From TrEMBL:
Organism per entry: Actinomadura gamaensis
Protein name stated in the entry: Glycosyltransferase family 2 protein
Pfam families from the UniProt entry: Glycos_transf_2
Lineage: Bacteria, Bacillati, Actinomycetota, Actinomycetes, Streptosporangiales
A molecular function (GO) term: glycosyltransferase activity
Keywords: Glycosyltransferase, Transferase
Length: 357
C-alpha cells in the first residue's frame, strides 16, 4: 500500500534556519488540478515548510471542497476585499512562520525552492527573497500528473514570436532580470520576513489581480517599493536557484493577450507611481526599456537575417509591447489626474467594469 503525502514525515529544517509558511491563493474550480499540484510541490520540499496555507478568494463552494480534499493544509477564506492582495494579506495574518513565502496556484516549486530562500535570511538586512519563475507553455506536463511528480517532464513549446524580454506578461522571469539585489520581487515566487508586513503596511487592495476585468498586476511591485521606502536599510534579493514553473494557458500564449497584458501593465504602473512616486515606481522599467528591449529587438532582427524569420516577429512584439505599455501608462496617468480625490483603484477601472480574477 502506497503511503499518502500527509502520512510521510517531512524533512526537518536546518538548525537556525527560519520557519517558512507557504501561502497559495486560489479562486476558481478551473484550477483544481493546478492547486493540488502546487500543494504537492510544497510537500515535496527538501526544506520542510512550517505550514501550507491555502487562501480561497470569496468562493465558499471551492473553500469547502478544498478543505475536504486537503485535510493536512490550512484552508482559510479571504477575509479582505476580493482579489489577490486581499488573499495575500489574509495569508500573512494567519501565518505562524518567521518568513512568509508565496506560490501561485498554477505553479509548482522545484524541490530546493524553500532551501534557496532560507539560506539568505541569516543576513538580518535581507527582508525578502524571490526566485526564478520558468514558463510551462501549452503542451507541458499536465497538472494532474504533477500531483504525483511535481517536476515537469516537459515545459511545452514557446510561441516562436514570443520574446523572452516580455515573459513577465505571463508571470515569469524575463530576460534582463539578473540574480542579486533587486527593486522588487515577482509576487508568485517570493518570500518576506513576516515582521516586515507591519512596516510596509501589507498589499494594496487597489492594485493587482481580482479587482479589474483587465489583467492588472504590480501589487507586489508597489509593496516592495513601499517596504524599501519605509525601511531603506532592507535588501530584496533574487536567487536564481529558487525555481518554480508557472503554467501558461493557451489563451495567454496568444498575441491578443500579450497586447492586452502590456496595456494593463501600463495602467498598473500609473497606479504604482501614484502611490510611491515616479522615481521609485519607474526606475527598473526605464532601464529595461532603454537597454534590454532595444537589444532584444536588434537580436530578433539579427536572427531573421540569419534565417530565423520568427526573429522579425519577436522584434515586432517587443516594439508593440513597449508601445502598448507606454500607452496604458499615459491613459492611467490621465485618468488619475481627472479623478482627483478618488481611490487609486477607481482611477483606471474602465467604465464600471466588474471585478474579475
Amino acid at each position: 500500500m502506497t503511503e499518502s503525502f500527509s502520512s510521510v514525515p517531512p524533512l526537518e529544517p536546518l538548525e537556525g534556519a527560519p520557519r517558512i509558511s507557504v501561502v497559495i491563493c486560489a479562486f476558481t474550480e478551473k484550477r483544481w488540478d493546478d492547486v493540488h499540484a502546487a500543494v504537492a510541490s510544497v510537500r515535496a520540499q527538501e526544506f520542510a515548510p512550517e505550514e501550507i496555507l491555502l487562501v480561497i478568494d470569496h468562493n465558499p463552494a471551492l473553500y469547502e471542497r478544498l478543505k475536504a480534499s486537503l485535510p493536512d493544509v490550512v484552508v482559510v477564506e479571504n477575509r479582505e476585499e476580493r482579489g489577490l492582495s486581499g488573499g495575500k494579506n489574509t495569508g500573512v495574518a494567519v501565518a505562524q512562520g518567521d518568513v512568509v513565502a508565496f506560490l501561485d496556484d498554477d505553479a509548482v516549486a522545484a524541490p530546493g525552492w524553500l532551501r534557496a530562500f532560507s539560506r539568505h535570511y541569516a543576513n538580518p538586512y535581507v527582508a525578502g527573497v524571490g526566485g526564478m519563475t520558468l514558463p510551462m507553455w501549452p503542451g507541458s506536463t499536465p497538472s494532474s500528473e504533477l500531483v504525483a511528480e511535481p517536476v515537469p517532464a516537459s515545459t511545452g513549446t514557446r510561441p516562436r514570436w514570443f520574446p523572452e524580454e516580455f515573459d513577465w506578461t505571463v508571470g515569469c522571469t524575463y530576460r534582463g532580470l539578473e540574480a542579486g539585489p533587486v527593486r522588487n520581487l515577482m509576487g508568485g515566487n517570493a518570500s518576506f520576513r513576516r515582521e516586515m508586513f507591519p512596516v510596509a503596511g501589507g498589499f494594496s487592495s487597489g492594485i493587482g489581480r481580482g479587482i479589474h476585468r483587465r489583467p492588472f498586476g504590480c501589487e507586489e511591485t508597489e509593496f516592495c517599493i513601499r517596504l524599501r521606502q519605509r525601511s531603506p536599510e532592507s535588501e530584496l534579493l533574487l536567487d536564481d536557484e529558487a525555481i518554480i514553473w508557472h503554467r501558461v494557458p493557451t489563451e495567454r500564449a496568444r498575441f491578443s493577450y500579450f497586447r492586452s497584458r502590456c496595456y494593463a501593465e501600463g495602467l498598473s504602473k500609473a497606479l504604482v507611481t501614484r502611490s510611491v512616486g515616479t522615481q521609485d515606481g519607474l526606475a527598473s522599467e526605464r532601464a529595461h526599456a532603454l537597454r534590454t528591449l532595444p537589444r532584444g529587438a536588434l537580436r530578433g532582427l539579427g536572427d531573421s537575417c540569419r534565417g530565423d524569420l520568427a526573429g522579425l516577429g519577436r522584434a515586432s512584439a517587443i516594439t508593440v509591447g513597449l508601445a502598448w505599455t507606454a500607452w496604458g501608462y499615459a491613459v492611467g496617468r490621465y485618468a488619475a489626474r481627472r479623478s482627483t480625490g478618488a481611490a487609486p483603484s477607481a482611477a483606471a477601472r474602465p467604465n464600471g467594469e466588474e471585478p474579475a480574477q
